[in-house]
Design a protein that fits this description.
The protein has helices at 35-60, 66-73, 142-157, 159-179, 199-213, 228-231, 241-255, 264-287, and strands at 28-30, 33-34, 78-84, 90-98, 101-103, 112-114, 122-124, 127-133. It has 291 residues and is an alpha+beta fold. The radius of gyration is 41 Å and the shape is flat.
Amino acid sequence: MADLVAPQIAQPIIVPQGMGINPIFDAEMILGVPYWVLIDCILLFAIAAVFVYWLAKLRKLNAVSGWSESLKTMGAGDVQVWIITRTQKLIIDCMKIEDNVLSYHDKAKIGMWHHNTRESVIVVGGNPALVVSEDYDQTRDLISEIVLTDNCDEFNHNQEDLQKAEDKSYEERLAEAKKNNVDPKTVTKRIIVQPINNYIDYESYGRELLQLANPDGLTMKTYNIFSNIRFLKYFPLGCSHMFFGGELTFDARNLALHKKEKSFWEKYMFLGASVIVVVIAFLAVWMVPLG
């Protein structure tokens, strides 16, 4: 008798209510992985890439993070200060300013700067600030430094042309003097053949030579970038902010009102009382019988 076998009936896939199978995104075409899994991975990767990109951007702005932090702690007598260190690192801090002298709130830091001109003020984000450096005890004027550096470098580069122009000017003034029956000895010849190599040269003759070469004032390029290193060539040496702060603190202490000097008894009364107590203790121990 033949076996009776029931025919197989395909079981329908039961989909929960509110859900359905998408013929495109739920298709398992690549290694048995639905398309929606691959799309989600791509979207997650894009989000992570954006996060890493902006995280790298924020890390580059760590140097100026002190801008917002200093505003939170700034009081009525404080000012924001941008400090350029000797290692070309930028530090933004909040300092107090009294009588045009910048100083730290921490008394352990004796470094100070003198604010010598109102023009040396920068405005960042609508907030005024001052720029200083560790190797100079005055506030930095960025515009003046750019102009002075460019003109000094140009002056040193054009020594021959300046000398030729001065020789020509001398000949013209000499001819004019002879024409007007003026003693030629009164016509002086200016020599512009000395380059400006450092601050001593600038103070000795450099400023006068720049005035002679630029009677209408120093010129400045329309577009320029500030460089702290370029101007170091014309910086005065030995003007550290630590030296200035220490010297100013020392002078201030000497000018302070002296307290009333203690008398002899006020100075040595405690010491004398201690000596008397010790002597009495030794005598008491010596006079106590031992047995």
